[in-house]
Each structure stands twice: as C-alpha cells, then as structure tokens.
Amino acid sequence: MITDMLKKENIQIIDSIPDWREAIRVSVQPLVDTGYVESRYIDGIIANTEELGPYYVLVDDVALIHGRPEQGVLEKQLAVTIVKEPVAFAEDGSHKARLLVTLAATDGEAHIDVMRALAELFMDADKIEQLVNSTDVDTVYQIFSDADTAEAE
Which of 5, 77, 81, 89: CA 20 to 30 A from 33? Predict the structure, then answer.
C-alpha cells in the first residue's frame, strides 16, 4: 500500500521553508522530478489553497498536500517532506505542519487503502513525533513501511 506509492527518492528532510507557497513547491517537486505529476500540479494546489484555505492540514504537524487528479497527476505516488521548523499554512500563522505528505492520486478510488494506512499513522502522536524528529530518509521510509505492516494486520 504505502510502500507501493512511496519511493525513497521522494523523501526529503529540510531545515526550514519560508512560507506555505514554497512549502507546496518543495513538497511536490520530487513528484515533478520523477514524472508522477506535471509542474502545474503545484500551481493547482496553491490556487486551491488560496480559494479554500489549508484544507490539507489534518492535525497538528501533519499536512496531506494534494490537489485534484485533473490538475496534473500522471501516476499515483506519495512524497514526504520533513521540515524541522513548522510551516504556517494559514495567513494568520496557524495550521502549522512539519510533516508534509504529498499525495498524487489518479482518481478518487485508487488510493483508498493508502489513505486508511496514512490515517492510522497520522493518529499516532508518537509516530508523528518520530517522523518530525527524523534525521535520515531511511528512518522516515521505515516508519511509513511499518504503517503498511500495521494496517495489514
């Protein structure tokens, strides 16, 4: 599930990002670079946020950044960005996140199992803390892989 959609090369750990627009660019860029989405997917998510607000900030420290399939998704895939300094996704400085998971879904159905596993992971405050304090890609990948195993049980 998650490991079917998450490649290690799409995981990055960054000290800080100046604002939410740049956070979206940085978070989605690995999927652009690896050919899973078109660059217009970034613009679509920014436009959605300007219209709807930060709909993808799910809980403290967690954002599931995504747009609509028709905004430039080519293949389903995930990317993970850990930001050491929280990024505020609302203009008033609220909706802060350090774990930015970017979802590229080709339709409304294909990623349901992955969403279940991610939901379980996002509800585990200890796992979120481990992720945002991770200093290497292998650890981040392992935590996401373990979430796959936990969901399968």
Answer: 89
